[in-house]
Amino acid sequence: MDELIFVDRSCSNAEKYVLRKKLFGTHDVQPMWVADMDIATPQCVLDAVGERLHHPVLGYEMMSDRAYQAQIGWIQRHHGWKIQREWLSYSPSVVASIGCALRAFSDEGDDVIVMSPVYPPFFQQVKNNNRHLTLYSLAQNSEGHYCFDIETLRSQITPKTKILLLCSPHNPIGRVWSREELFSLGTLCVDYGITIVSDEIHCDIVYEGYTHIPMASLSDELRECTVTFIGTGKTFNMAGFGISTVCIASPHLRALYEKERSRIHWGEGAILSHVAFEAAYVHGDQWHKNLMFHLSNNRKIIQQWASVTARIQISSPQGTYLGWLDCRALGMGDRELREFFIREAGVGLSAGLGFGREGSGFMRLNFAVSTTILEDALEKISMALRGRGDA
Ligand SMILES: Cc1ncc(COP(=O)(O)O)c(C=O)c1O
Predict the structure, then answer these.
(1) I need a surface site. Which of 1, 21, 25, 131 has the fewest CB within 10 A?
(2) 59 and 27, same structural domain?
(3) Burial class (CB in 10 A: 0-12, 13-18, 19+), 142
């Protein structure tokens, strides 16, 4: 019931397959790019949806209090943060809600801090909403770990800086920010009256030795200036249900956000999504444990592979199922690197440059696949490297 079931998705309309030709110019690649998994959505979710279909009316429905309480329970059990029901509202998409938050908490022309490399819609949402991007370049220290320098960040703040757009855990570099890091970042924002828009969609995919800390849980002050996005999409592989929530404790920020949200009128979402969301959070604990066991194993396999692959390094992900491959030692330009993975290795990865210029020389590999597929893909890459005399 809670076991993981690996599924061949090539015969459904899965983006990872359907978009291959468009993205890679060929159907002939093992797709390991978009951030979803080759694993069946938990049976408890499928059962709940099936059960709901016994009722013959699929009209407008509100998201139930039970569904919100299910999420509140999960967040408390897994992250030790107690959310109040009135802080939460439905969202069909984290990215859409980021756009809504940008409009709610800043004006056109205002500055928004984004730490790059990052999930590309962060850049697009800021630009498309006519805000100005203040890019902070995340850098690796001598051990290859990404970190930030609070004084450099401080020096980038202007009177027009209104929002910090945070990715926590961070896609694509896989950092799970520590309490100290979050606290220093949060304190900086409090000092300058900056609203923190914190995308925590990857919060449940965190490996042993690391702990996800919700930014808003750090202090009363941070709770009042943080807007958090959380959902079932990544955790339970159910992005196709288009459901997540926005959590805003401050009545003032909530009112601003609601005003903007009402302009869009995305309503309360789809009935089957409500049911799926509730079931996942109520019954998904054991499935999630099994998922983390599998992902931890795959993560180890990539780490071992990278340790013997002289010219590709991986800064080990602390969270997310995304491997951030440092290919700079191969000495290829970004176009050549991309072509190498497509034409010579036959794997469809996300090119690092798409995550900002700091991603130059990197590739992102989604390892939420079966171990067989992962090992096969890594072997293909090794063979391609050997073909170039590089392994
Ligand atoms: C950091 C991050 N935020 C948001 C999303 C997408 O969220 P949604 O599908 O709810 O818009 C993703 C998907 O990969 C992501 O990695």
Answers:
(1) 1
(2) no
(3) exposed
Q: How far is the CA of 95 from the centre of ligand 1 (A)?
A: 6
Strands 195-199 vs 226-231: parallel, antiparallel or unpaired:
parallel
Supply the pLDDT for residue 2: 92
Q: What is the pLDDT of residue 390?
A: 67
pLDDT tens by residue, 324-362 = 999 999 999 999 999 999 999 999 999 999 999 999 999
Q: What is the pLDDT of residues 216-234, one digit of tens each?
A: 999 999 999 999 999 999 9
Dist. CA 226–CA 214, nearest whole Å: 10
Clarify whether residues 220 and 261 are in a common domain: yes
Of 201, 202, 215, 246, the residue with max ligand 1 atoms within 8 A of its CB, to mutate for a pocket test, comes to 201
- Distance of alpha carbon 214 from the chain centroid: 14
Question: Whole domain around residue 121: which residue ranges?
Answer: 46-283
Q: Indicate if ligand 1 lies below 6 Å from the C-beta of 233.
A: yes
Tokens of 221: 């002050």
Nearest residue to 350 via CA among 29, 92, 9, 12: 29
| 8-state DSSP, 344 | I
Nearest Cα neighbor of 252 from 188, 292, 195 is: 195
Same-domain check for residues 220 and 71: yes
Residue among 241, 247, 160, 242 nearest 203 (CA): 247
pTM (two decimals): 0.97
> Which residue CA neighbors atom 7 of ligand 1 most closely?
94
Give the residue, out of 115, 118, 119, 198, with the most ligand 1 atoms within 8 A of its beta carbon, to mutate for a pocket test.
119
- Which residues are CB-neighbours of 110 under 8 A, at least 6 positions away? 131, 132, 160, 161, 162, 163
Residues of the chain with pLDDT under 70: 390-391
3-state secondary structure of 62: coil
pLDDT at 315: 82
Q: For position 21, which CATH number holds?
A: 3.90.1150.10
Other beta carbons within 10 Å of 9: 18
Q: What is the pLDDT of residue 388?
A: 86
Task: Please report whether residue 237 resides in a domain.
Answer: yes
Compute φ and ψ for 148, nearest 5 degrees: -130, 160
How confident is the model at residue 273, as a pLDDT?
Answer: 98
